[in-house]
Design brief:
Structural class: alpha+beta
Number of helices: 4
Low-confidence stretches: none
Largest sheet: 7 strands, antiparallel
Mean pLDDT: 88
Order of helices and strands: EHHEEHEEEEH
Number of domains: 2
Distance between the termini: 34 Å
Number of strands: 7
């Protein structure tokens, strides 16, 4: 499978950082050294931590990653729901803050592509249970709606 998600330079953050550097330069010209240092450090930190973001290469849509935790008892039911038809009458499995199972979902903001991967907990780490499930088209919107309904 080709790599459909890649990291790209975040243009909005780059514009913000350039603006902050210009503000810092103006503050330096006006001899307001404390503002210069604070704004310049803020620009450097923002650029260092937020300069790249993940995008779906086909549409250019940003990608978000989320993890949902569930009990071991719910694993087979959740697998059946994910492999079967996602609808309004699908079995609801309520997610919690921690659990012996984890569902990692990578989804585009425009809900055109998603990948779901299930993990189970063995001491000190989570191991992948099955192959990732890839969704595209209208199934992604159904998955997003299902995940929202399952959150408490």
């Amino acid at each position: 499978m080709e790599n459909v998600i890649e990291k790209r330079l975040n243009v909005k953050v780059l514009v913000l950082v350039i603006t902050l550097v210009i503000v810092s330069g103006v503050a330096l010209i006006l001899k307001d050294y404390s503002t210069t240092v604070i704004v310049f450090i803020a620009a450097a930190l923002i650029f260092f931590f937020k300069r790249k973001h993940e995008v779906y290469t086909v549409t250019g849509s940003p990608v978000k990653r989320e993890s949902y935790f569930f009990d071991r008892d719910s694993k087979s039911a959740l697998e059946n729901v994910l492999h079967g038809e996602l609808g309004d009458n699908s079995l609801l499995i309520y997610f919690s803050d921690s659990g012996s199972g984890r569902l990692d979902v990578i989804m585009t903001k425009d809900e055109s592509y998603a990948v779901a991967t299930m993990y189970h907990y063995i001491p000190h780490k989570y191991e992948q249970v099955a192959d990732p499930i890839v969704y595209s088209g209208p199934k992604v919107k159904k998955l997003a709606r299902y995940l929202k309904r399952c959150q408490r």
